[in-house]
Design a protein that fits this description.
Elements (H helix, E strand, L loop, with lengths): L7 E5 L9 E3 H4 L9 H4 L8 E3 L8 E6 L4
Antiparallel strand pairs: 1-4, 2-3
């Protein structure tokens, strides 16, 4: 990838009625083919992630933080 997926951290407010679309990373990665799992698992801390399986409207983004380069 030619850009950093971790350069900006978004704060997203997901309405309660949409939370059923949140999936634990550890559950989602089991459904991926082994060769595709690194897209998630290669990032430190990914085992604590929840992944939203759907489109996030811009109105749900309530904040952002520019991350420091490692």
């Amino acid at each position: 990838m030619t850009y950093s997926r971790t350069a900006v951290r978004l704060t997203v407010s997901i309405p309660d009625s949409y939370r059923k679309k949140l999936v634990k990373e550890t559950d989602l990665v089991k459904t991926l083919p082994p060769e595709g799992r690194c897209i998630i698992t290669d990032y430190a801390g990914s085992e604590a992630w929840y992944i939203y399986k759907g489109r996030i409207p811009p109105s749900w983004i309530v904040g952002y933080e520019l991350m420091k380069e490692a």
